[in-house]
Specification:
The chain has about 375 residues and is an alpha/beta fold. The longest helix has about 35 residues. The chain contains 11 helices and 17 strands. The structure holds 5-S-methyl-1-O-phosphono-5-thio-D-ribulose. 5-S-methyl-1-O-phosphono-5-thio-D-ribulose (MRU) binds next to helix 2 and strand 10. InterPro entries: IF-2B-related, IF-M1Pi, IF_2B-like_C, Initiation_fac_2B_a/b/d, M1Pi_N, NagB/RpiA_transferase-like. Pathway: Amino-acid biosynthesis; L-methionine biosynthesis via salvage pathway; L-methionine from S-methyl-5-thio-alpha-D-ribose 1-phosphate: step 1/6.
């Protein structure tokens, strides 16, 4: 069951509501999400009291972005355990709610394993539920710390790539505080550059079809007082041609063992443009997004989404950004090609920035080294 509480957020003000929080009202524990489908017009909390409600929130992108999906998945297991549901069944439902972002599976398994270990050691159901919750909280904290470290590594790397500051960064989708326990991935680097006085401009791709750039990244940039402009995705080519882009910075939903990067659809064309125009293409992601069990890009499952997300123009301001809520623009019965992500091969990626450091060039050996470093902690 999910319940909604609405608070109007009329302009660029500091964040009022946490992106995700655990709460324990007298009726029982709940997971409270900032409903990203309703931003920027409304700051709305979505209260999930069970796993099916959370699965629905994940599938409709009320909660989204790879690192946050991992955190939400872990809390989802804690919720199931605390409310006495079958944790194995909950894990099965949550893991496949969205197939591409590997963080979701990571977070779910982390909390389910903690629960299973506690049970195997003879813990009571309450104690086992507590172990799952502690695993979720630890992941939440670790992601915030990873975000801080990625921002520092990314800023230093930008300084090496483009000495002298004044960076004009192009980004795609949304990779800020809305996807993380901290300030995000690629956006956190741009924000660090802004705070250091080194960001000349942030170019924000609108990110069709669900407009994560226009609705969410522009919102985050405005709140942080960053110099930014919004562009339609298909204007990126002429922006490169005009020499207005110094670096592309994006996040990732999964990075395969060979360094192939799955990210929001539209990322691959940016990588091709960046290569043609000799502009660095930098991917910023925590090591929880690296997946050694996926050998290469062809093995990454790319989520296909409803046709209506493409045949409709989404969200009159204030409406919910999901299929079925927009204005239909295509003839009735039009079919659509609507992959949520695309895959960029490693040879087009200048660097992968993680909390464990920067990998450039991007190679399979380097990805394995980063994973090993993350395991050593
Ligand atoms: O479909 P979404 O909005 O969940 O897609 C999100 C992205 O593609 C992000 O760029 C990615 O998760 C990286 S977020 C740090």
């Amino acid at each position: 069951m999910a319940d909604q509480q609405v608070h109007d957020a009329p302009g660029p003000v500091p964040p009022q509501l946490p992106v995700l929080r655990w709460a324990q009202p007298p009726e029982g524990p709940v997971l409270v999400l900032l409903d990203q489908r309703r931003l920027p017009a409304h700051e709305t909390e979505l209260v999930c009291t069970d796993v099916p409600a959370l699965v629905h929130a994940i599938q409709t992108l009320a909660v989204r972005g790879a690192p946050l999906l991992g955190i939400a998945g872990a809390y989802g297991i804690a919720l199931a355990a605390a409310r006495g549901y079958d944790v194995v069944e909950a894990a099965g439902l949550l893991e496949v709610a969205r197939p591409t972002a590997v963080n979701l599976r990571y977070g779910v398994r982390l909390a389910a394993d903690a629960h299973g270990r506690a049970e195997a050691a003879g813990a009571t159901p309450e104690q086992a539920a507590g172990a799952a919750l502690e695993a979720a909280r630890a992941l939440h904290r670790a992601d915030a710390e990873a975000s801080r470290r990625m921002a520092a590594h990314g800023l230093a790397f930008l300084g090496e790539l483009l000495p002298g500051g004044g960076h004009r960064i192009l980004t795609h989708c949304n990779t800020g505080a809305l996807v993380s326990g901290g300030e995000g991935t690629a956006f956190a680097v741009a924000l660090a550059a802004h705070r250091a006085g080194e960001l000349r401009h942030l170019w924000v791709d609108e990110t069709r079809p669900l407009l994560q750039g226009a609705r969410l990244t522009a919102w985050e940039a405005a709140r942080n007082g960053m110099p930014y402009s919004l562009l339609s995705d298909n204007a990126a080519g002429s922006l490169f041609a005009a020499g207005e882009v110094d670096a592309v910075m994006i996040g990732a939903d999964r990075i395969a063992a060979d360094g192939s990067v799955a990210n929001k659809v539209g990322s691959y064309p940016l990588a091709v443009l960046a290569r043609y125009h000799h502009v660095p293409f930098v991917v910023v992601a925590p090591t929880t997004t690296l997946d050694l069990t996926t050998p290469d890009g062809s093995a990454i499952e790319v989520e296909q989404r409803p046709a209506r997300e493409v045949t409709e123009v989404p969200v009159p301001r204030g409406a919910v950004a999901e299929a079925g809520s927009g204005v239909s623009v295509a003839p009735l019965g039009t079919r659509a090609y609507n992959p949520a992500f695309d895959v960029t091969p490693p040879e087009l990626v200048t660097a992968v920035v993680t909390e464990e450091g920067v990998l450039s060039p991007v190679t399979g050996d380097g990805i394995a080294r980063l994973c090993a470093a993350a395991r050593r902690g």
